[in-house]
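Hi,

I'm pasting everything inline rather than attaching a file, because the server keeps stripping attachments. The sequence lines come first, and each chain or strand is labelled.
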Amino acid sequence: MESDEKYIRTHFGKEQHFVAPDGYLGGLANSILDNVTAMAANQADVPTQIAAICSGERMPLWQRWRKVVAVACLLLACGGTVAFFTMHDVERKVSPVVSHNSVESATYTYDEIADFSMLDNEDIYSLVASN
Amino acid sequence: MNIPLPQPVDETLKRRAFSDVVSQYSAKLYWTIRRIVIDHDDANDVLQNVFVKAWNGIGDFKNRSKMSTWLYRIAVNESLDFIRRKKDAASLDADGNASMADRLMADEYFDGDHAQALLQAAIASLPDVQRVVFNLRYYEEMKYSEMSKLLDTSEGALKASYHIAVKKISAFVKQNE
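And the predicted assembly:
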């Protein structure tokens, strides 16, 4: 790389060959400020809070977060209420269903056993053949 | 309750501070941008955009970096965005770059000879970020540590990029001499 960079430096140097128009650099700062001022003036009609955001100035921290906290509290309250009533209903509904099913399934099992035990071999063979 | 900002006082101070920033950095930034975008009118447009963005974002500048680094970063990003938008055949292939050299020779705001124009065409043939790295290192002699903050790239990657750029430029000018 040294030889390549040396070649470039030797052949071309580091002199600047771009040129600015006469007077451009002298009036550059003013033209930039005029442009920025004109842009800022266009923003003057914007409401105070939006203009503050655009210009980079910030609202106080508590103002920025006030609405977020309010929405979060509301969501928490709604969610908690829904959860409470949903769980309460589930408890009421689950227990009878479970106990009812348990009684029913117990009865069904005994019936099956009773039925099955009364079948003789002839009956079983005919059942199997028909299936 | 919205507390109104003390705008007249803050605004005056802001303008005064910004005016100092413009006076101090506008010329330097112009040349940095100019070397990237080549054309004077394009450089002027990009520079104006840079300071508009700086004005809008100056409230976010929290002194985590130097003011110069912050401004240079905006300038480099705006320049890169510009050249990406304005990709033309002259920056894509060797023939195009040779004609770019001819265009530079015809440009009233370029006072170099054919060799210098060829060098600029070679630089313009580099990938965008590599072009920026070369310009910042070769012409502005920027330290890799500063460039690293500016381009958010490791120093190692920047050194490698510069090394490759030098090889490519050297090959280009030798081929087209």
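Residues 95-106 of chain A have pLDDT under 50 and may be disordered.

If the labels don't parse on your end, tell me and I'll reformat.
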